[in-house]
Amino acid sequence: MRGAEELAGILRRIDRRGYKAYRELRGAFELDGLVLFVDHVQADPFAAPSRLRLRLPGKRAGIPPALTTGRARRTALEDYLARRVRAEIARIGARPRGSGRSGRLSIDAGGQEVLPRTAVRVTGNFVEARIEAGLPAAGRSVLGREAEELLLGVLPRIAEAALRAAHFPPGEAERFVRTVEAQEEIRARLPELGLVAFLADGSVLPRESGASDRVLRGADVRPLRSPEALRVEIGLEAPVPGPEGERTRLVGLGLPEGVTLVVGGGYHGKSTLLRAVERGIYPHIPGDGREWVVTRADAVKIRAEDGRRVEAVDISGFIDDLPQGRSTRAFASDDASGSTSQAANICEALEAGSRLLLLDEDTSATNFMVRDARMQALVHRDHEPITPFVDRVRELHQRLGVSTVLVMGGCGDYFDVADHVIEMHAFLPEDATERAREVARRIPSGRRVEVREPFPAVRARCPQPGSFDASRGRREVRIDARDLDRIVYGREEIDLRGVEQLVDRSQTRAIGHAIHLADRELVDGRRPLAEILDRLEAWMDERGLECLSPWAQDGAHPGALARPRRFEIAAAINRLRSLRVRIAREGAPARAAGG
Prior knowledge:
By secondary structure, this protein is an alpha+beta fold.
């Protein structure tokens, strides 16, 4: 392994030469206990930055072994360290050092959520941060002296300050790790408690603004307080340290399995509550305000999505008997309507394994959600192909075990099918179940249930080879995350604007590579989509996110990836316009046994 003197010598020798001379840096350098890996050198100062790794030996890092025991703790610790590296970059490393991206440093650290990432890796032998760096240049000429300061000065200082436990603020790492671990502990216990979500008293749900996911602060902010009828207490296996002392139990609002209706006047917090629940599928950082809002991991937010492509989805449980006798047992459309897209979104979520649906009337198709008594009287049932969600929501729970949390501010017909009704008043929840039932008794809706047939079993679909072509022009593979909600996949662009539980562009990037991995290894025309998702999840569990990376070879920098859920991977596959599927034989399970 080369040393610091050789690195400095190379940089002085190539000073003012063409930018491609930086390629001599590829490899590893030992810098006084820190190992610097240069895995990829950018083509020019305006191209995507170079990929570097900073590795400290385990003994030098001094991370207490207790912080790495178990998957939840390791994920939390790696997330914590990535945030520390980002903070140190901002403090001492972020300044321009020439043309283009020269001198810029970055690491893929997260926002308010804690996700498994490739940004930091902690093993029994070392701690490693994977960063991106713009190697300094004047025009397209090497700035060797600036590069020497960056690689031999700035980067070792960042690694020393961010990755060594001796420099952690007292108790901060333990609090971060234990907070995340406790959230996962609660999530695992929700089914035995008969709950789909838990929101602790004192949680702060409102955010700074529509453009910021940070907690809203101020004297007018009202922390959550649970109504007595829905209040539950959860004891923690181990105490969680915090600014106000250790917590050994949490008290708060428990959302039970079944059908829960969230009502209330406009601007009183209905959608804010649902938004917190839909983001509760992820752990949150201490101080977020929602760190004790925990939702089952299989929750999927459902909305109408005009214009999306649908490929051979059985939506007959919601929409059937179309004009001219067209079947919806394998419904396909290049431009689905609001109602057909919402029906497809539900059926696809069930196929992927969801047992908790989250809906908001504001983003739903009205004719899909309900048909009131007056419309039933005017338009005969024989002329209406839609079985509204209000007539299926209880059946979904009773027959399939699928719960629903639904925000509804304008239609009282759902009072007849709700197990629980929560009224939001000035951002505080109140139990309105008995009052809603009394209203339903006193003012009957007069509508008729319009179900003709039982809700059909979810039919398995098998993606066909050739559906996932990642090539583009001369490039065999062209995959990128254009934004949080857009994937460039070969010649296609996958629109994920209707997939509301994505929180990080690195998740989106990982989804693109997960689809490509599935295409190479799993899509054979016979394997159902649910089984493909099972296999991808198992690989990520066993081999880490690196299994998705097209760059990770012999431990090289794996790129900026964050773990997506199976539901968002499925959503992307289902929105790929080149997707072709074969319907499995009648009665074949959509989800593989044991999946």
